[in-house]
Amino acid sequence: LQLNHDLPTQAIPPMPTSSELLKMYNVRARKQLSQNFLLDPLITNRFVLCGAKDLAGHHVCEVGPGPGPITRSILQRKPERLTVVEKDHRFLPMLKYVADVSNDRMTIVHGDILKYDLSQCFPQELAKDWHKASPPFIVFGNLPFNVSLPLIFKWFEQISRKDGMFKLGRIPLVLTFQREVVERFLAQTGDKQRCRLSVSAQNFCDIDYKFIIAGGSFVPPPKVEVGVVKIVPKKTFDINLPFKKIDYVVKHTMHRKSKYCKHSVKTMFPPKRSDLVDEIFRKSGVDPLTRSNELENLHFRDLCYAYEEIADRIPNLRKVDTYGENEWSKTYFDANGNAKDVLFE
Length: 345
Ligand code: SAM
Prior knowledge:
33% helix, binds S-adenosylmethionine, 12 helices, alpha/beta
């Protein structure tokens, strides 16, 4: 894939490539940190094009830049500003190399993206109302999979509350995930991969599957294929509740996803409270003999809203966050499933 030369690009002055810098600084990928680098400019350019054709006027953030191969492709597209957040200090000198030729357009943050508040990277005055177009901001990231999943859950929570960086509007994200995870994001009712992730992802975001990167394109190559997705928060959510509340109901309901949902929905309630199980099905209108992975997002909406009504009435119900066994209930409920007074947490 070639860069489209009709669009404004800025050549980076001749300098060592990311792979030469890795050799110069004698930095090796840390396998235990899943550091797999994308050193092919054809792929990094294609990755960046997934964000926007033209980055002029955009404020961009890259999470986990490593030695900077994606960073260079971003800078070539002339964004207004680029902030990179990298945890591993060994990459800082290499990133400084890139920043030095960026005409003061690049800021390096040495930090952990799971703790860093990304809203600092974007100018407040360019924020856009949630129901309008996205603001001129983009986040890119090729992160280790053990970081990208907790991060997307954190972002789903922020999207559901329109806080964190999403208080500035519907900021698009261009991210890599294991191909298998991308398939779960997109899985529809009845698909084998449909799971808890599918319901929340589709509730909060439009997810555009851009392309697959073969494991062999990374240095060192991971054992799995990698999918690139563009994720844009939706203007309105079918289930308009905080992510954690939705995830609680979906997690339980999807627990045994090929069984009738009455078996899994029951695990949200104390034993001997079949009255509450009957109530959630009655209120939601969901058929208890539907298999969990046959439920549509709108069924989950009705289950979530019905659960909210019940949990508002029954003390301690929300304290529970385990599914399957009923061990937890001993702390919060008596043998008949009535809430105990719990004074100390
Ligand atoms: N973006 C580079 C590329 O595509 O070649 C590097 C990708 S490598 C898979 C992931 C990068 O994320 C590494 O540089 C790693 O140090 C960084 N990283 C891992 N955990 C991080 C965290 N919690 N916060 C910020 N960066 C992190």
